[in-house]
Amino acid sequence: MIQCLACEDWFHESCCNLRDRPAPREQTPEENDQYQVNENENETRSEASSSGLPPPLLEASDYDAFICGSCVSKNSVLQRYAGSAGCLIVTRDSSSSPWKLYPEKDAVDNLSRSENTNCSQKRRSSPTGFSERNAKRQRVSPSSSSSSSEPCLAPSSSHQSDKIYTGIRDSEHLATLGTGDIFLTEGFRDRWCQCSTCLPLLKANRYLLEEEDTYEPPSDPDSGLSLEELGMRALSRLPRDRAIDGIHAFNAMREDLVQFLRPFAQDGKVVSDSDVKTFFETLMERHRGQNT
Q1: What is the pTM of this model?
Q2: Per-residue pLDDT tens for 174-192?
Q3: Where are the domains of the chain?
Q4: Cα–Cα distances in angstroms (integers) from residue 112 to residues 72, 159, 185, 211, in the given order
């Protein structure tokens, strides 16, 4: 399953259209009819069970983060990036067409290189031919002019993604072209546009700019020890007389349990919860009688 980076809900790969939904399992035949199932049907079922699920359109190692379509539809910046290099979506041309990645895997590298080239050209370009009056205005308020003249480097929303999110917003239109989920490749936090329009929307969702710390529980030095080793360690910490009494009590309980379970094994009966509770209740009553 895949977890959304924004709402932290979990999704099946089939719900994200990454793979076909597996067919429902066939009902097990009745006990009276199970011997009437022919060998061909048994072979077919065994082949279906061993074939496994179909391969997904996108492996987990091919992307770094996932954001569901519901969260993307609430953020205009994410909608602009959907379907661009490093921000993949799963879509199709029509309701009868197969699902595909957009952009395709082979085109992602080319789109990424062209996008980086365009971004660097925009950063290097600077307006020329300012009048002396504009130059003086820049010297008076450099911060305001620099922020207003900073170009937006976010890509324009693709026609395919527009159709997907329009279908999601339209209650009468089924989202047949895709769910609007996006799959972000590695380094996506470095590719966001930092202009005055996009940055506030990104800061409102800090997970888009900063990676959240993953909680890791402290290492347990006893995790590699067996129950026997842990038990021996606990006994070694007890006084000698109490440790000996504990070993005798454990051996006595084990013998009583073996005697109690032997009739069940001989008769082939199943031990139920009530049988186990009865055994320990009897053991506790006998222990209380010995102490009084």
Answers
A1: 0.55
A2: 567 888 899 999 999 998 9
A3: 2-19+53-123+146-208, 227-269+277-283
A4: 21, 19, 11, 22
